[in-house]
Design a protein that fits this description.
single chain; 296 residues; alpha/beta; five-stranded mixed sheet; 61% helix
């Protein structure tokens, strides 16, 4: 049985851990609000630019008039190699956030019948796929819980290079969609090549028409890369909000568990201390009796 001193030392250690987890919970909660605002602000623009470019892709007359070398993101070709952009965290202590994102990515990859190439964002994703022998062509990390638009531009640049050079023929993005603090949903979407809306029949005229200024060639040179950067940035901020929400929940549970453990150890400490006092009293009484008998 552990001594009172050992139990007291354990209680102090657990108490210090509880303070750390409580501080991490408060930091995650403070940063989560800003991450939620970014996620909510970026999503409508990402959905709209995707809608616009999808409708452009549905107009075969526009696509046919473009130079494939100058507009590779709008070109469709036979699929031989598929790329997956997997967004994950740099650090742990975020509950099952990373595990769920990686599980979703592996499930999507296992259904793919073509050669697979991986682009990772987040140190956890990089380490996971590298250890298992996947073909990781590009890795980005150091910003999973506070991404900027520049980070999305860097990732999009690598993705565009791989797609334009025909290193990959399709690009899917796997990220975590933020619902609320207790609910984050791992999601997979096809982002390259840009495809027409599913509700538009290719034999029919598209519902919206666009006037390009100065020209459709110049406009799409800017719009197509901007589409990819925006979609990736929206996914990054959604993942950041999901990571912070999951970390806040995990640290809250850890703090509560630390408090319960300290209470349990307090009872054990009191019992051990009482047993020690009782033993010392017995030794004193026994010593007094032995001394009295020796004098008699």
């Amino acid at each position: 049985m552990a001594t009172a001193r050992e139990i007291h030392r354990h209680m102090k250690s657990i108490g210090n851990i509880g303070k750390i987890t409580k501080a991490m919970k408060m930091v995650a909660a403070a940063r989560l609000r800003r991450a939620q605002e970014k996620a909510a602000a970026s999503r409508p623009y990402a959905l709209k630019i995707k809608e616009v470019l999808s409708n452009v892709a549905a107009d075969t007359s526009v696509i046919a008039g473009l130079n494939p070398k100058e507009h590779p993101l709008l070109q469709h070709r036979e699929v031989k190699r598929v790329g997956y952009l997997v967004l994950c965290s740099d650090k742990g202590l975020a509950g099952a956030y990373s595990a769920n994102a990686l599980k979703k990515a592996v499930a999507e990859i296992s259904k793919c019948e073509h050669e697979v190439l991986i682009i990772t964002s987040g140190r956890k994703a990089k380490e996971y796929f590298a250890r298992r022998g996947y073909n990781v062509v590009s890795s980005h990390f150091g910003f999973s819980d506070r991404p900027t638009y520049e980070d999305a531009v860097d990732i999009a640049h690598d993705a565009m290079e791989a797609f334009a050079s025909e290193q990959i023929d399709e690009l899917h993005i796997v990220y975590t969609l933020f619902k609320n603090v207790l609910s984050q949903v791992p999601t997979s979407e096809l982002i390259l090549p840009v495809k027409p809306p599913e509700d538009v029949d290719s034999s029919n005229k598209i519902q919206e028409s666009f006037i390009f200024e100065p020209s459709q060639d110049e406009a799409l040179k800017i719009l197509a890369p901007k589409y990819l950067q925006t979609i990736i940035y929206a996914a990054l901020v959604q993942s950041a909000a999901s990571e912070l929400g999951s970390r806040m929940t995990a640290m809250s549970s850890a703090t509560d568990n630390a408090g319960k453990l300290v209470q349990s150890l307090q009872l054990s400490y009191n019992k051990a201390r009482q047993a020690g006092i009782t033993r010392e009293l017995n030794e004193i009484v026994g010593g007094v009796e032995a001394l009295a008998q020796s004098n008699h």
